[in-house]
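Fold it.
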Amino acid sequence: MPDPIDEKERALRKELSKRTLSMPPLSTRDEQKDADPEDISRIGRDISRLIHEERLEDAKERLEMEIKKYPDEPGLLNLQFALNMMLKPSGSYDKAKDSTGKAMELAIERKSSYFVRVAINNMALVAQKEGHEEFSKTMYLAAHFIDNMAIPPIANIAGWYSRKGELEKSQKWIEKIIELYPDWHENEEITTFLLKDEMLRNLRSYEPFKEKVLKVLKGKKREV
């Protein structure tokens, strides 16, 4: 029978990795000489699907092959980070940090603020898992500063406060998402995070969250 602690950690790792899987590859945002944007997008979708299906060894094999072909594609390194997070339920995160470090260097070379933000956010995830709580929050905030419309840093900050039991602060960050995205209740990425993410477990019992999020979603469900 699986260790319940390991299962909880695995569930959290899966949620953290999902924030990375939604990131598009660099070629869809910046020019890259050697990579065909459509090819990279297709590869990214294929690997993301394998990870979502938890076919992790298949994803690892495919990703290693594609990175050999496109070693300078931060989007693929970003997927490698997510995969390494899921393959390593405990212990060292050196491989995940290595992927993000390479992606950061490439993003800086190309002056891509988008992937600099992604790399900072990913390193914050690792720092949080390694127990560097305050440092991880600082990096989440830095990622949010770079792009204050991006959902992953806001989601991670809300989750950070929720896990700490600071529900009022967590709720404020949730309300930022609601303010930034008026159609939030129709956005699958946002609603999945709000309803299912392990990091928000504490917040779901908080009355303002019930009123402003759960009640709204329940009402929308009835309208369908």
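The CA atoms of residues 42 and 125 lie 26 Å apart.
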